Amino acid sequence: MKKKTHLYIFLVLIILTIIAALVPFIWASKYAYPWADDFGYGANPHLIFRSTGSVFAAIGAAFARTVEAYLTWQGTYTSCFLMALQPGVFSVKLYHLTGAMMITAMFVSYYILFNSILRKVFKASKTITWCIFLLTTFISIEGVDGKAEAFTWFNSAVHYTFGHALLMVFLGLTFLYMQDTEQKRPLLNCILISILGLLAAGVNNITVFGGLLTLIIFIGCSMLYLTIWGKRNYKIVFRILPMTITYIIGTVINLTAIGNKKRMVLVTDKTNGLFVTAKNAFVLSNAFIQRHFSLVTLAFILITCILTWYMITQEEVLKNVDFKFPLPGLITFISYCLLSALYAPSTYLDASTEITIGYINGNLGVRRVANCVYFAFILLLVLNIFYYCAWLYKKNFNYHNSILGTSIVCISVVMTILSIKSQIIETPGKYLTSASISDLSLSTAQYYGYQMALNFQILETDDAVVTVSPIAVDPFVLYPRDASDWKEGVRTYYGKDEVNYDHEPYF
Question: What pTM was computed for the model?
Answer without folding.
Answer: 0.93
